[in-house]
Amino acid sequence: MTASDLDPALDALYDDFNRHGLLPLWTQREGLMPLSPEPAAVPHVWKWANLYPLAERAGELVPVGRGGERRAIALANPGLSGQPYVTPTLWAAVQYLGPREVAPDHRHSQNAFRFVLEGEGVWTVVNGDPVAMRRGDLLLTAGWAWHGHHNTLDEPMAWLDGLDIPLTGYLDAGFFEFGPDEVTDRSTPRTSRAERLWGHAGLRPVAFQDSPSSSPLAAYRWEQTDAALEAQLELENEGHPGVAGQGHAAIRYVNPATGADALPTMRTEMHRLRAGASFAHREVGSSVWQVFDGSATFTLDGNSNTVSRGDLVAVPSWCSLEVVAAERLDLFRFSDAPVLERLELARQQTLDGAKR
Ligand code: GTQ
User: Fold this and answer.
1) Of 302, 108, 115, 343, nearest to 225 (Cα)?
2) Is beta strand 329-335 parallel, antiparallel or unpaired with respect to 267-273?
3) Residues 309 and 295 sit within 8 Å (Cβ to Cβ)
4) Which atom of ligand 1 is nearest to the CA of 141?
5) For 200-209, what is the mean pLDDT?
């Protein structure tokens, strides 16, 4: 029984509110304005050992081409009522391209990246610039850039896609356009034009003085990421404090023209932990982690999970996360942090990990 059942006049008021498209704050406040975030999304782990064979089966049964556009299998957070979203703001999918297959050209207002766990042989052609995809590389497709993918080898290839599809959806900001059914430039340069222009650390081409909100560098290569992380750990070993947090090196992929996040709506990072190193925190905004190499324990709001190469972890807003590296560990991470920061909603807490 609710209070209004005792008072016919109050009952009638609520009925009239309803009839006029109104709802009073006092019956809703706790859900609308919680004391701290109460995400519907739940912490969740997807094992690569399950994901890859399912992608392979899709490769056998489901063609890729115009209409469906991509053989991309979305990670659906169990807390989000069957929607194909890994968190309320982020899309994460395993995309699979069979031998010699082509995913046709299109563009959309959603921002996208690819992160490669394993394999090679696919070129993603971004605004006419062919970009090779290899293990450890991060490839960008900023919003409204044309892109298609084609596999040049007789081996399949699968990778992680990250997009801001749900965020763009809530904002009713989605636009989409079909391009040619084929990828027109099938050349296979090792280095894209974007990298030749922008891929020299600290050196900006003088002819390009604009500050684009998305990175003009289409590819961030593993060789450079690996070297940057290793240097942080070496410097720490050599006694230079503050370059890595207690055996935890990290880099952020940034726009070389501005120093800001590589994409306007998503943060992308790579972390390297020495065996036994750990960190613990919670943050406003949601993240997805993928184990690139090694194995670890991820403890999410007190529940521990063992993860290894390829496994993916969804971390909802304000969920406490503790990561302990069981061996030397490389972790890729993406999040909606640039959005939270620009809206001045970002908060974070460092936690005392159980192991410290
Ligand atoms: O490769 O363009 O996972 O358009 C979802 C939508 C990948 C892509 C996805 C897309 C793409």
Assistant:
1) 115
2) antiparallel
3) yes
4) 2
5) 95
| pLDDT value of residue 177 | 97
**How far apart are the CA of 279 and the centre of ligand 1, in A?**
32
Q: Which domain holds residue 139?
A: 44-199+212-350
- Distance, CA of 121 to CA of 194 (rounded, Å): 19
Is 267 contained in some domain?
A: yes
d(CA 161, CA 340): 21
- Residue 234: name the closest of 279, 269, 272, 278 by CA: 272
Q: How many domains does the chain have?
A: 1
Task: State the closest ligand 1 atom to the C-alpha of 93, by its place in the atom list counted from 1.
Answer: 3
Concatenating the DSSP letter of every residue in 13-26 gives HHHHHHHTT---GG
> Mutate which of 62, 85, 95, 167 to test ligand 1's pocket (most atoms within 8 Å of Cβ)?
95
Asked whether residue 163 is assigned to any structural domain, the reply reads: yes
Q: Which atom of ligand 1 is nearest to the CA of 74?
A: 3
274 domain residue, yes or no = yes
Q: Which is higher by pLDDT, 29 or 262?
A: 262
Residue 224 lies in a domain: yes
Whether 126 is in the pocket of ligand 1, judged by its Cβ within 6 Å, is no
Query: Which of 136, 138, 92, 72 lies closest to 287 in space, CA to CA?
Result: 92
Checking if the pLDDT of 204 tops 60, the result is yes
Asked if pLDDT for residue 237 goes beyond 70, the answer is yes
Among protein residues, the one with the nearest Cα to ligand 1's atom 8 is: 70
CATH number at residue 257: 2.60.120.10
pLDDT in tens, 1-14: 455 568 999 999 99
Q: Which residues contact 59 (CB under 8 A, 6 or more apart)?
A: 71, 96, 98, 156
Q: What is the pLDDT of residue 183?
A: 82
| CB neighbour list of residue 34: distance below 8 Å, 6 or more residues apart | none
Closest CA to 314 of 54, 88, 38, 51: 88
Percentage above 90 pLDDT, the chain? 91
pLDDT at 1: 46
Rounded (5°) CA angle 285-316-93: 95
Nearest of 142, 145, 70 to residue 102 by alpha carbon: 70
N-to-C CA span, the chain: 50
Sheet with 112-115, strands from edge to edge, namely 72-74, 91-97, 157-163, 112-115, 138-141, 219-220
